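Fold Annotation — chain and its backbone
Encoding — discrete vocabulary of local shapes
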Amino acid sequence: MEVFLALFFFGYLTLVALIFTRHLFPPAQSGPIPEKVSEGYDHSEFVLEVEDVDKSFDQPVLKSISFQIRSGETLGVLGKSGSGKSVALKLIAGLLKPDSGRIFFHGKDITRMNERDLLNFRKRVSYVFQGGAVFDFLNVRENIAYPLRERGMRDEEKIAERVDYLLEAVELENMGDLQKSELSLGASKQVAIARAIANDPEIILYDEPTSSVDPIIKKSLNRLIRKLNKQEHLTSIVVTHDLRCIEMVADRVILLKEGIIHFQGDQEAFHSSADPYVQAFIAGRRFEETADN
């Protein structure tokens, strides 16, 4: 009897201790999936390096573009329609191959990867398409869970935990059961962003993330992108013609003009540039209006 009482008392104290500890130190919310950099990649200064890349279709689209991006940095790529912005993103994602030049991810040239290595690389990069590309046959929760299942995750509890975390991260709590037809365009873009970061990529590529939405929603999306880039420790490239978007989210700016990099530098250098084309772009004017200056 004494042994039973001793065991009961010990068990009771253990339970109290667990409850007390959980109250003081609640479990952390499901965050990024560990291990950003895949095995076999160098931990170099630059996450991504683009060297003298050319791409043509019927005519040249990109002409010897070169730039680097560091871990955790957000690079904004500006340019008018047809300047090569979206083509640059597709090259970086490995969806297109350059005609010449090289693209390095942690020191490995993705332009020379075989399909197996390219598939592994693509697991580290997410792409947010201009239209969002939310699946209309899945609800919001299932849209966000889709890449987790594709990756091979089978633990439904962990999937639910990750999805709940992402719904909160993109500010769509209590909207998990909605279908695409029930979402605003802005909310659809938020779902697309949540789905893009579900597998915890190292690089996220945004193609015109604020297009076709009103100014209030644009501001909200820009704030969300900036927050998530910091919260998820993402390296990001944001392609847009929306100067206000770049001002809110980017650390550095590239301005493309007819397939070449016309300007590259930080926000301060961009806005203080005396270059007529840069000044015209910032002012929202056609460059021809300043051609005589």
